[in-house]
Known about the structure:
This protein is an alpha/beta fold. It has one domain. The protein is built from twelve helices and seven strands. Helix 5 (171-176) links the parallel strand 3 and strand 4. Helix 7 runs parallel beside helix 10. Residues 1-5 have low confidence and may be disordered.
Amino acid sequence: MPAPSMATLPPPRKRRLISIGSVLGLLVLVTAFLPVLLAVGVVADLLTGPRKMRFTRLGLFTSALLTIEAVGIFQNFRLRALSGFGFRKGPAMRRRYADLQFWYTSSLLQAAERFLGMSIQIEGLEHAEVGNVVLVGRHCSLPDALLPSAVFGRFDHELKYVLAGGLQWVPNIDLAGGGLDNTFVNRSADARGADLDPITAMGSRVSTDSVSVIFPEGTFFTPERRERALARISERRPDEFDRANKLQFLLPPQHGGFCALLDGASTADVVLMGHVGFDQLATVDDIVSSVPPERPMKIRLWRFPRDTVPTETKARVDWLYEQWAALDEWIGENQ
C-alpha cells in the first residue's frame, strides 16, 4: 500500500499518538499471546511446509520487529530530552542520533537474517569507507530503505535521507527525522519542481563523515507504476521516453531531487547502490510467500568521483540515465 502524501498527514502530536500507540499496543498483544501465536504457526507449518517453518519464522520476526521499534521509540525520547527538546543540535547530539539510527537499521536486518532466514552479500563495500557522498539507491521495498544506514553506518557516517512524507507514520523514522537532518517530501514534488530547496540545503551540509541518501524512483517498482511513469514522461519529457522505456526492473529516475542534492553537495562523490532480492519484500503477501528466501540478497556499490559527474543539469540527467541503465542491466543479470 502506498504511503499517504504529506498533505494527508495529521499534525505531529496526533500522528505520533496514533503510530506510537499502535506499536506499543501491538507489542503488548503479541507478547501476551506469543505462545499461542507460535503454537498456531507451528501447526500451520506442519500442515503446509515443515521444512520452511514459514509461519513460525514470521511470528518470531514480528515480535522482534515490534520490540526493536519500541526500544527505538524509548531511545528517541531519551535523546530528545537530552537535546533540551530540540534546542541543542550540535555535532555531539547528531552523532548520538546517527548511532541510534545505525542500531535501529542494523538490528532490524539482523532480526530478518536470524528469524526469516535472510542472508545478505555486499560487493564494493570499500566504497562506503569514506564519506562526503550522495548515495543514489534502488527502492523496491520498505526494508531496502534500511540498507544505506546499515552499510555506511558501520563506518561511523551520519546519514541524511530524502524520504517520502508518508514514512513519518513509522515512529522511529518520524522521531529521529529532526535529529538526523532528514528531509521529507511529497512523492510528486520532484515532477512539480517543489520541495527542492530543502533538498539542496540538506546537500550543503554533507561533510567528510556524512552521506546524503536519495531514491530517484520515488516509490516501489510495479508494472503498473512503470506504465504510469512512462505515460507521464511521454507527455511531459518526451526526449527521455526512449531511455525510460528500456528500463525493465527500475522506474525512470525522477531527477529533480538528485540534481538539487548535487547542487548543495558541491564536492561530494556519488555512490550508486543496487540490490536484488529485496523486491520479494514489497508487500505483506510477498514477505509471507518468500520466507525463507531461496537465494541470498545481493548489494552492490559503485563509486563515482565528483570530477566524473557532470555539472550542467541536462548532462547530469543524461549521466543518471546512463547509470540507471547499467544498474537495470546488473539487476537483470543477478535476479
